[in-house]
Amino acid sequence: MNKNQEYIENLKMEDVPWHRITTTYGRATDFPQYFKIMWDMENITDVKTALCEVTNNIEHQSTLWHATPFAMIFLKRIFERAVSIINQNECADYIVEYLLDFFELIAECFLDGDDMEHPQQLEHFSDMIKEKYLLSEEYDEEEDEIYYEDEEVFSEELFYSFWYYSYQVAAACRPMLKKLENSSSQHWSLKAKELHLL
To answer: Which terminus in the chain has less CB density within 10 A, N or C?
Structure first.
């Protein structure tokens, strides 16, 4: 297991400065509470809302954001938990279905652009949350708007890393996808085979 794989496996929620990384519509400040709702799998309505809030904020028209690769780590863990209890929990069943489609979308976003000329990704996953890449500690709507208007708001290496490392996390779901592919359920088997990750 290399350093980036270890990072994906061991990253803690509190180690990510969610309030200082970008999403489609702002900052990822509320992501931890959404992940908790998904992880608990207690209320299907709340789970659906949490999934939509996170996924709509980390992908938009094939554009990925600073929060995307980090959110993918926790979506991967939630997916793995859901697969393990898929026949026992209504929320788990919904999460697996939803995230299979979403991981496929992330894979397509990466693969569609990877054949084109692109910069090298940052060497380490953790490099993306170095201080120089983060938003201010205190939220200021006007300041954030100015930040987004900068045509070079992200360095080329950082921007490409959003796609590269998001795909690496999706690809790390292969063991769970293999489990679904080999399941007795034809539905889950076909869904797993559709992904570009096997």
So the answer is: N
